[in-house]
């Protein structure tokens, strides 16, 4: 088949233009580097590409697409649009995000200002869905049928926000919008919906004909993802968060889930949420008439319930603290798993130390943020009651923190924090917010953070294992005497989280990494770490076997076997006892006991509890984690999950920085070894044969005996990007950029001259001739050229001047020029002392 020359040219032209457009997007997100390590630079480019494909990117600096903004405001709230139509029509054609927020704030309309704050002109984003999974479909649409640019993003909660975290390093001025989008999509009871899209949010619904459908809250990412945003903005724009303390720019997402009362959670922790179909119908009807804001919580006056930053933070933290089990972790009782959904069967009886480790870091941040805050703020009266009750409980039982906590006292604390949460939820579910507010002292909020931190640290100490590692997930069992905690095998996720908690000293962190390297989690062939220790699974014939002594301890079993009744238990030809093979769980056992003829009633009453106990001993369902304990693929047994390894890399980087701030060269050396060993395991320098794919591309996981699986669409890229910026020495503190490449290897500096091609802020291709002994990268799309020297200095090159600053600090004025991407700074030439 032959093509006309014109058609061939058109195809080639389209491909070429698409390649250039893609390179511009990656370049604008700081994906271009030149060093002597070509593989690392190539891997960085791939990481940036896949990061923006998940979370989107900004392709016109901070400029706002005015027609798209108008459409967005109208979609969000038609009343606000009609009220502010003149304002919107009067906006100039060229307007930056900060200019938009400034103009909107002068209109005195809180809804308008909130909507504008949330507006993020992203494109090139797709919804969650690994392409290798047949039930996932997505497309990246950048233009409509008329050739107009599409501004859109959509994705699972954790996908969107983790990728925005990395994107913010290139577009820091959008961090305010990211924080507002995050907080305004969370619920009053402290959780997040399933999916975040440009026009609002989605929740999972009950679909009888869809075997994959399920409802529940994925609440695990809220604490650490939100905290990373808050830490970021506090470093880049100090004081911004304090401005939010008294601004009612925040709202609550109205998700038609109803978490059951505390007593019901204890009775059946795997069945804890009801779906309110009537509420969903009302929400959808309100959305149809008002716009996306119809899915927000309203007060008794039917007005959107508006709150400040302190309230939103308290609602999020209290949701975790109200599920705190001392020495156990944060109770996972909202029907959805933690970060690693391979552990999905832990929901209900699982208790997360992972969330507790991150919560400790969050509470410590709160303490510091409130150190110089004002006297008081107003929060919803209902939340104030909830807050006071939890605070009182924690204060009343502080004496327990001097030693080990009994099962009875553990239950006492859980009751004291769980009951107020239940009462708060029930009040709002049934009556909504009253619309009245109560003043709370910020000193009391800080005191609560400090007290809660003490509880978290006590639990961290209690969860250190004898081998030097820390528990990740535990199991809780409600007994007559209280709440009992039991333990699961070691998991990589627990070590990552405790290293990220900022509780351990640098020496303690090094100890965890030493223990991790010596543990069963280290996989030597890939020089990296698996999620959980590998194990031999029992053969089919070894399952459902009741020890003879345990079976014959039941008089009912003896009688049933003698009668030939196989409803509950049968005895095979070898004399081995088995439960009925059709049983799914202990409820099946109870149903079978209830269905026995009346003549067995007395024996059923006598042995029911015994048989239920034996059933749990045989199957140990409570310890079943999900596919992490049975699969060999995906994130299963023997499998490396690369995202978690990259989280380990970032945690190791943070601990390495802590070591560098001290005066122990041996400790620094140990941390350097650990950091570069973890980095080597990730594999940019592995052979394709060993990696199982092109090592410059990120992959999801590597099962035992196979190469890397599921390319590209992995959250790993976020941590790798941030770690790479850390290696390059990018530090921002107090609103000032500094260059501290203490981890950067000398081998990365060029051994011979090379040309650095990059995309400038004006979207033009620019070249810089690099000399041997230098390297280059972009930051906020401004080229930074490192060269080795005897003293540290930064030369700022503009189109009209060149000035040199002694030392490693750029200064706030020049830093702001970079953050705002003004184009005034053409290049930074940094002399590095190695």
Task: Provide structural commentary.
With 834 residues, this protein is an alpha+beta fold. Among the domains are: 153-500, no CATH class; 540-623, no CATH class; 728-834, no CATH class. The chain has 29 helices and 29 strands. The longest helix has 25 residues, at 407-431. The model has no long low-confidence stretch (mean pLDDT 92).
Structural class: alpha+beta
Number of helices: 29
Gyration radius from CA atoms, angstroms: 29 Å
Major sheet, described briefly? 6 strands, mixed
Extended strand count: 29
In round numbers, the mean pLDDT is 92
Shape: globular
How large a portion of the residues is in β-strands, by DSSP E? Answer: 5-15%
C-alpha end-to-end distance: 61 Å
Which parts are unreliable, with pLDDT below 50 for 5 consecutive residues or more?
Answer: none
Strand order across the largest sheet: 1-25-26-29-27-28
Helix content: 40-55%
């Amino acid at each position: 088949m032959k093509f006309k020359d014109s058609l061939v040219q058109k195809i080639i032209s389209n491909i070429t233009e698409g390649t250039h457009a893609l390179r511009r997007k990656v370049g604008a997100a700081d994906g271009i580097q030149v060093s002597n390590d070509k593989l690392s630079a190539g891997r960085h480019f791939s990481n940036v590409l896949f990061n923006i494909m998940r979370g989107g990117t900004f392709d016109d600096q901070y400029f706002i697409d005015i027609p798209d903004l108008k459409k967005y405001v109208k979609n969000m709230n038609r009343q606000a649009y009609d009220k502010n139509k003149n304002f919107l029509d009067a906006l100039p054609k060229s307007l930056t995000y900060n200019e938009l927020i400034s103009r909107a704030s002068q209109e005195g309309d809180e809804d308008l200002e909130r909507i504008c704050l949330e507006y993020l002109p992203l494109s090139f984003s797709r919804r969650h869905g690994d392409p290798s999974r047949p039930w996932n479909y997505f497309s990246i649409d950048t233009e409509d049928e008329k050739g107009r640019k599409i501004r859109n993003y959509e994705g699972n909660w954790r996908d969107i926000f983790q990728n925005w975290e990395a994107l913010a390093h290139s577009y820091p001025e959008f961090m305010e919008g990211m924080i507002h989008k995050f907080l305004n999509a969370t619920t009053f009871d402290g959780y997040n919906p399933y999916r975040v899209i440009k026009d609002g949010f989605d929740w999972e619904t009950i679909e009888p004909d869809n075997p994959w459908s399920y409802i529940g809250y994925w609440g695990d990412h809220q604490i650490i993802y939100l905290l990373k945003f808050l830490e970021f903005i506090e470093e880049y724009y100090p004081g911004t968060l304090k401005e939010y303390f008294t601004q009612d720019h925040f709202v609550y997402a109205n998700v038609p889930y109803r978490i059951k009362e505390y007593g019901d959670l204890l009775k059946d922790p795997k069945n804890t949420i009801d779906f309110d179909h009537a509420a969903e119908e009302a929400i959808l009807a309100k959305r149809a008439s008002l716009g996306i804001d119809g899915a927000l919580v309203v007060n008794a006056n039917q007005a959107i319930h508006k709150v400040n930053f302190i309230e939103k933070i308290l609602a999020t933290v209290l949701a975790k603290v109200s599920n705190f089990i001392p020495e156990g972790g944060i109770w996972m009782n909202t029907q959805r798993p933690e970060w690693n959904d391979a552990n999905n069967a832990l929901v209900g009886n699982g208790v997360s130390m992972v969330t507790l480790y991150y919560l400790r870091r969050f509470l410590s941040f709160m303490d510091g943020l409130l150190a110089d805050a004002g006297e008081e703020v107003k929060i919803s009266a209902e939340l104030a009651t909830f807050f006071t009750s939890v605070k009182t409980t924690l204060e009343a039982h502080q004496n327990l923190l001097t030693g080990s906590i009994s099962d009875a006292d553990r239950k006492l604390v859980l009751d004291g924090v769980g009951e107020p949460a239940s009462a708060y939820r029930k009040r709002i579910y049934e009556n909504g917010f009253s619309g009245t507010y109560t003043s709370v002292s910020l000193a009391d909020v800080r005191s609560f953070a400090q007290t809660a931190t003490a509880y978290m640290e006590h639990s961290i100490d209690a969860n250190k294992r004898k081998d030097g590692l820390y528990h990740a997930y535990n199991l809780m069992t409600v007994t007559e005497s209280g709440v009992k905690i039991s333990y699961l095998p070691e998991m990589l996720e627990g070590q990552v989280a405790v290293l990220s908690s900022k509780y351990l000293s640098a020496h303690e962190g090094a100890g965890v990494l030493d223990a991790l390297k010596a543990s069963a989690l280290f996989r030597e062939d890939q020089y990296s770490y698996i999620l959980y220790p590998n194990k031999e699974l029992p053969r089919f014939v070894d399952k459902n076997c009741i020890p003879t002594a345990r079976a014959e301890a039941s008089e009912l079993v003896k009688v049933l076997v003698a009668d030939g009744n196989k409803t509950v238990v049968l005895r095979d030809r070898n004399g081995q006892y088995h439960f009925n093979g059709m049983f799914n769980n202990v409820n099946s056992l109870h149903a079978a006991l209830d269905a026995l003829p009346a003549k067995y009633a007395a024996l059923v009453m006598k042995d029911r509890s015994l048989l239920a106990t034996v059933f749990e001993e045989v199957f140990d369902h409570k310890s079943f984690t999900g596919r992490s304990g049975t699969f060999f693929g995906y994130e299963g047994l023997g499998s490396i999950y690369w995202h978690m390894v990259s989280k380990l890399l970032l945690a190791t980087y943070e601990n390495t920085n802590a070591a560098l701030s001290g005066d122990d060269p041996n400790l620094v050396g140990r941390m350097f070894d650990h950091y570069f060993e973890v980095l080597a395991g990730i594999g940019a320098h592995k052979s394709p044969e060993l990696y199982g794919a092109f090592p410059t591309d990120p992959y999801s996981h590597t099962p035992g005996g196979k190469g890397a699986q599921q390319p590209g669409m992995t959250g790993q890229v976020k941590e790798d990007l941030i770690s790479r910026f850390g290696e390059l020495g990018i530090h921002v503190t107090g609103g000032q950029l500094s260059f501290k490449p203490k981890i950067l290897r000398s081998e990365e500096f060029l051994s011979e001259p090379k040309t650095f091609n990059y995309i400038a802020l004006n979207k033009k291709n620019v070249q810089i001739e690099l000399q041997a002994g230098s390297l280059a990268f972009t930051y906020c799309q401004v080229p930074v050229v490192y060269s080795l020297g005897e003293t540290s200095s930064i030369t700022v090159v503009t189109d009209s001047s060149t000035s040199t600053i002694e030392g490693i600090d750029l200064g706030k004025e020049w830093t702001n020029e970079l953050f705002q991407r003004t184009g005034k700074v053409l290049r930074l030439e940094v002399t590095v002392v190695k």
